[in-house]
Amino acid sequence: MRLMPSLISIWHPSDAQPVTNDVQLRPELAAGGLLYRSGASGTEILLVHRPKYDDWAFPKGRLDPGESLLQCAIREVGEETGIIARVGRKLPQVVYTKPSGKRKKVAFWAMTSIAGSFSPNHEIDEVKWVPVAKAPKRLTYKADKRFITELSKKWTAPPRRILLVRHAHAGDRHRWSGDDDALRPLTAKGHRQAYDLSIALAHFDIDRVASSPAARCIETVADLASARGMEVVADQDLWEDTPVELAQDMVVNARRGTTLLCTHGPIVAGLLRSLLGTRRAIPHEKGSAWILDVRKRTVFDANYLGPTAANG
Hints:
Blueprint: E1 7-10, E2 28-39, E3 42-50, E4 55-57, E5 60-62, H1 69-81, E6 83-97, E7 103-116, E8 126-131, H2 135-138, H3 142-150, E9 160-166, H4 188-200, E10 208-211, H5 215-227, E11 232-234, H6 244-252, E12 257-263, H7 265-276, E13 289-295, E14 298-305
Parallel strand pairs: 2-7, 9-12, 10-11, 10-12
Antiparallel strand pairs: 1-14, 2-3, 2-5, 3-4, 3-8, 6-7, 9-13, 13-14
Helix pairs in contact: 4-5, 6-7
């Protein structure tokens, strides 16, 4: 069995938990997905029924230890609906106060189905596709009703997203016997990392793939691109000795849709420090990816997709 990659969220300031030592004051975090499809009456969303509470809601749940919000959302949707989801836009949070008085913050992403089907389970005994306009009447909770009512009309539109990939393991450049380091290939470990990465990135639409001309970068994403009927476009602006500003322009000026960029460690690190406005160490292991959502030339949501424990 292959281990799932680690996934770490970095929130923009409005989503950050307050700094406090009082556990009771910290909001409880959860995540879920708004699964949608085209129906006879327009866009439909999937609601789930929980027999324990006899309520109708969106698929969601609390984080497992060490889990990120995005990872939690993907897992909960899969567990509750049986659907393997493709992740669309980041949506506004749902914030409400539980009967206990504790606040709860739920992060949501728009999602569509890649595969899978529902089977009743101990948590969910029924699911129902409902037209968006009729969802408020079906939903049980006021916070959910308000959430779906106030959603932007563009919530199903593709996000402007960058999948920023660091090439997989390619051995030690100082032990490479070739004359041109640009030709240094992936190792067996690197090929395993590239395979695992392609599985993890199956949860995301990809509209175009660009890479540093280095063989190790192109090899990292070649099979992923081929499986989607795409070619890898070699771009010198992603080469490791290129000024980071050139790669940054590719990110902030990205076209609508999802662009995968495969590059080198120094470029990834420099880009993230600049885009996320931080000087602290940012994880960027070989064979890893950052999911960056861009709006108005600014990264407003970032999630780290690390290599599996077996191949890290």
